[in-house]
Sequence to fold (175 residues):
Amino acid sequence: MAPEILNSKTLYTQDNVTFVEQEIRLPSGEARTKIVVRHPGAVAIVPLTEDGQVILIRQYRLSAEAYLYEIPAGTLEPGEDPRACAERELQEEAGYFPGTLIPMPGFYVAPGMSSEYIHVFLARDLRPSQLNKDEDEEIEVTPMPMQQALELIAQNEIRDAKTMVGLLYVARLSS
Fold:
């Protein structure tokens, strides 16, 4: 039996993220208050070239206080189809249009506190196609052999969860 939501109150909203305080009744009858982060979801794309290079991006992430290697990704706009979002984000961040987008298993980022769900895609048959980057993005496009990217995971140089998940999905497909 799922907990019963007794009361919900929006605490704060900024951009696409809303913090909600929820009073719930647990199956045991006990009442608790939880904070939930509501997020519209996102996409993450593993772009592979014909010669086996994976296109990663490197950018500074304020919350991590570090430059991180990542696969291209972005937040869904309200009502946006994940496939359309993946096409847009790949062009904005990496400068490629996918000829083929293959859906992979998706995942919740932090289900204990957030509703954010990431739809993962493998992008093949890449064609150069640049859209304008978001104003706050300073991105370095960094192609590398898939094996090198997997080694960077093992060396803790790739520390972004969506990137690790996406690369490991694709590596499993290839083996």
User: Anything to note?
Assistant: The longest helix spans residues 161-174. The CA atoms of residues 90 and 96 lie 6 Å apart.
